[in-house]
Amino acid sequence: MFSGIVEEPARVVKAERDGGNLNLTVKCSFVDELKIDQSVAHNGVCLTVVALPGDGTYTVTAIQETLDRSNLGDLREGAAVNLERSMVMNGRLDGHIVQGHVDCTAVCESIEEVDGSRYYKFRYDVSPELVAKGYMTVEKGSVTVNGVSLTVCDSERDSFRVAIIPYTYEHTNFHEIEPGTRVNIEFDIIGKYLARLSELRS
Fold first, then answer.
1. d(Cα 83, Cα 112) in Å, to the nearest integer?
2. For the chain, where are the alpha helices, taking DSSP H only?
3. Dihedral sign of CA atoms 172, 149, 6, 65 in order
4. Cβ of 78: how many Cβ atoms within 10 Å?
C-alpha cells in the first residue's frame, strides 16, 4: 500500500530483458535501508526488491503483464523513475490510498504554464466496460500519475488535467514529461469498489 507521495526520482542504471521479464537496476539515496522482498513503487508500479549487490543499487523484476499495462518497458539507462516505499501504517496519509497496481497508460497531450504552476493534460483509451468497472476520473477526485497522487481537474470521458506545483515538478519525473510521453495511471480504488457494488446490485 502506498500514498502517492514520491520520495525521489531515481535513475535507472540498467534495464535488461530476461525472456518476458524486465530486470531494472536502480540507484537511489535510500538503498541502504532496503532489504530483499521489500515492496517499492516505480512510477506507481509495486515491484519487489530481488537483489542488493552492495554498490548503491538494487534490482527489481517486472513481468510481461506489468509491462503490458505500464510504461516500465519504455525505461532505459539514465531514465528518471519515481520511487516510493510502502506506507507506514502509523503515519499520516498525505496523498490517497494507492495500491501500486497500474490500470493503464495515458499520453501527455499538452502542458500549460499558469502563474508559476503547470497544467498537464493526459488522454487514455477507454471502453464502456472499463468505465463500468470504475476505470475513470471524476472532477476533484484522486488519480495517480507515474506514482504521484494528484487531484483531477477538467475530467472528461477519456482525458483529464492535473496541476503540478513547482516542488512536485522538481522532485518527481514530471520535469521530464512532455507532449507524447506515456505515463502510468492508477484510478481511485474507492471508485472501483463503488462501481463493483453497483454492478452486483443491478
1. 25
2. 64-69, 128-132, 166-171, 189-201
3. negative
4. 9
26 bridge partner residues: 12, 58
Give the number of other CB atoms < 10 A from CB of residue 65: 9
Measured between its terminal Cα atoms, the distance across the chain in Å is: 30
Contact call for residues 13 and 77 (beta carbons, < 8 A): yes
pTM (2 decimals)?
A: 0.93
CA dihedral defined by 98, 104, 107, 109, rounded to 10 degrees?
-70
Q: Three-state secondary structure along 33-84?
A: HCCCCCEEEECCEEEEEEECCCCCEEEEEECHHHHHHCCHHHCCCCCEEEEE
pLDDT tens digits, residue range 78-123?
999 999 999 887 777 788 989 999 999 999 999 999 998 999 999 9
CA 9 to CA 196: how far, in whole Å? 34
What is the pLDDT of the chain when averaged over all its residues? 94
Tell me the percentage of the chain whose pLDDT exceeds 90.
81
Q: How far apart are CA 133 and CA 111, in angstroms?
A: 29
Residue, of 195 and 24, whose pLDDT is higher: 24
Q: How many Å is the maximal CA-CA distance in the chain?
A: 56
CA angle 46-42-131, nearest 5°?
65
C-alpha span between 79 and 43 (Å, rounded): 11
**Torsion over CA: 124, 87, 172, 40 (sign):** negative
